[in-house]
Design goal:
Blueprint (H helix, E strand, L loop, with lengths): L1 H13 L13 H16 L9 H16 L31 H16 L5 H17 L11 H16 L3 H21 L10 H14 L3 H20 L1 E2 L2 E2 L18 H6 L24 H8 L5 E8 L11 E8 L4 E5 L13 E4 L10 E5 L18 E5 L2 E6 L8 E7 L2 E5 L2 E6 L2 E7 L3 E5 L3 E7 L3 E8 L1 H6 L5 H9 L4 E3 L4 E6 L5 E6 L11 E5 L2 E2 L8
Helix pairs in contact: 1-2, 2-3, 2-4, 3-5, 4-5, 4-6, 4-8, 6-7, 6-8, 7-9, 8-9, 9-11
């Protein structure tokens, strides 16, 4: 945590201010976060810093004050008590937005409690006044309906502001919302599966509430919530990466896990990358995970499978939503996983499946995956998938078919992490990290070098892709010594792609298992179409998945 405080404070101290007196105009919260770290570092005599503490504190205070004063302080107006999000060329003219206060409001209370005695009189007054406006805005007075990150932040804020303003009715609402949310995600799973970066808003909001809470009973429930959240995180944790499916993912999470500060503090089994795209309060808030969750996250020596259930919430639909099955396979050197079902997510940001390599200090892409581009896709941003994909997951192998109808994009997009890659006819073989990969394609492809990954473009749909990851020790068992041997061995065992209305692929894994994925009536395949996934001739069952 001190390392994070120091590194961000150093960047903030060196970063020139804009004419507005702020560092950032893209997101008002970044000014608050950077000023918090600079102020904290300048105030901590035990932390050696290469700058004047007094000058740094004045700079931090000035940015903090300018940020706080951007709040809408006019009672009765729309979004009273809120801040703008994007600030534009003239921050003081920017209109308030509903999002910043959700997390920033609670963090302001935390920061004020810890550093209030070192504030100047003007900053102290500004903070106390702003916190009063937040409370009177009542932005958090909303019911729990979707069990998502917005409501999680409302719940934490109810407890925090109810305590500050001695509002017992609000605190009772907060406790009820907390217990209701915890009961739901324990029973049904998190509707926002692998949702990045929003999972970290859950963690920070409830950690903030836990640290500020004085009632022993409420604090115990907050601890249960945090235990559960970190157990959810641990299940799909792999050396800094979030393996498997994501309901949402921003460019700093796809195709590389870069938003890693909370994991670094909690687990620390990877080198911290230079870039820190979402600082937030990872250097300030801490709740130690249960030992079982820590062991799950850090001990990947023996290969293991994770099979989890979850369920979406659609407020206007009274019918039960279908169960979603999330698969993960973990080894010492890679993880792979995905969701069996396609789900239409917010901004069409679902990442259906991916292989994950460990996070490295260079912050490069550490994921491998393929998809058919859909709504929101644009070149150079390998996100936003179409619904036209059927999947089979089995240990280190992923098989996908793309029953793309006429009139849709005729190209698949693939992401490969940097490594030693060899091109072959409708195939790629490579060594990335400490893992061999065989990538088989149903059509010809073009390889494009991006800044921190390789992009594969496959022309001609419908089609399919098969990927198998092989550990070095597995390769040695098969008499494979080095990448050249691997290429020769894997080129001799290509899968069989069957085009047509019965779109299918058959493949024998390195371990000798027979896999088959088929889509019937592929020419008219709908979302979640009629697919069959078989292992050694038997249908793959999803009955053993649990919450």
């Amino acid at each position: 945590m001190n390392e994070i405080i120091y590194r961000i404070a150093l960047e903030a101290e060196r970063r020139p201010l804009l004419d507005s007196g702020l560092w950032f105009h893209d997101d008002v919260r970044n000014n608050f976060y950077y000023a918090s770290y600079l102020f904290a570092a300048a105030s901590d005599e035990s932390l050696e810093v290469p700058f004047s503490r007094e000058e740094a504190k004045r700079k931090a205070e000035a940015v903090m004050l300018e940020t706080v004063l951007l709040q809408n302080r006019q009672p009765g107006t729309e979004l009273y008590g809120h801040w703008p999000l994007g600030l534009g060329p003239n921050p003081r003219e920017a209109k308030p937005h509903e999002l910043p206060v959700e997390i920033m409001g609670s963090l302001m209370v935390w920061f004020c409690k810890h550093y209030n005695s070192q504030f100047s009189a003007s900053l102290r007054i500004a903070f106390h006044t702003a916190i009063g406006h937040i409370y009177r805005s009542g932005f958090f007075r909303k019911p729990v309906v979707t069990f998502g990150h917005h409501e999680a932040k409302y719940t934490a804020a109810k407890l925090i502001f109810g305590t500050v303003f001695e509002d017992e009715e609000l605190r009772e609402d907060g406790r009820d919302s907390l217990e209701k949310t915890l009961a739901y995600i324990r029973e049904k799973g998190m509707p926002e599966y692998g949702s990045l970066p929003w999972f970290w808003h859950w963690v920070q909001a409830f950690t903030c509430a836990w640290e500020l809470e004085q009632d022993g009973g409420v604090k115990a429930v907050l601890a249960e919530m945090l235990d559960h959240l970190w157990s959810v995180r641990a299940a799909f944790y792999f050396r800094g990466a979030w393996a498997g499916a994501h309901s949402r993912g921003w460019p700093h999470d796809v195709p590389g896990d870069r938003n890693v500060l909370n994991d670094y503090v909690q687990f620390g089994d990877f080198g911290l990358p230079d870039g820190m795209p979402r600082t937030e309060y990872a250097g300030f808030l801490f709740y130690e995970v249960p030992q079982q969750a820590r062991t799950t996250a850090l001990d990947r020596t023996a290969p293991s499978e994770v099979k989890k259930l979850t369920q979406k919430v659609v407020p206007d639909d009274p019918n039960p939503q279908p169960l979603l099955h999330s698969y993960g396979y973990f080894t010492a050197d890679y993880a792979v996983g995905g969701l069996w079902e396609r789900v239409e997510e917010f901004d069409n940001e679902q990442l259906r499946w991916t292989y994950s390599l460990p996070v490295t200090p260079d912050g490069g892409a550490n994921q491998l995956y393929f998809f058919h581009p859909g709504k929101g896709y644009h070149e150079g941003d390998p996100r936003h998938q179409s619904p036209y994909m059927e999947v089979l997951y089995h240990k280190g192998t992923v098989m996908t078919l793309y029953p793309v109808p006429e009139g849709e994009a005729d190209t698949l997009i693939g992401v490969l992490p940097k490594g030693d890659w060899r091109e072959a006819d409708q195939a790629l073989f490579g060594l990335a990290g400490n893992v061999y990969f065989a990538v088989y394609l149903s059509q010809d492809y073009e390889l494009i070098e991006r800044a921190d990954y390789l992009e594969v473009q496959v022309k001609g749909m419908p089609g399919g892709v098969v990927v198998e990851a092989v550990l070095p020790e597995q390769a040695v068992e098969k008499g494979i010594d080095g990448l050249d041997d691997f290429v020769a061995a894997m080129a001799a065992k290509t899968p069989v792609f069957t085009p047509g209305d019965l779109l299918a692929v058959d493949y024998n894994t390195v371990g000798g298992e027979q896999l088959r994925l088929a889509v019937t009536d592929a020419g008219n395949a709908a979302v979640g179409g009629k697919s069959q996934a078989r292992l050694n001739g038997q249908s793959i069952s999803l009955e053993d998945y649990t919450v």
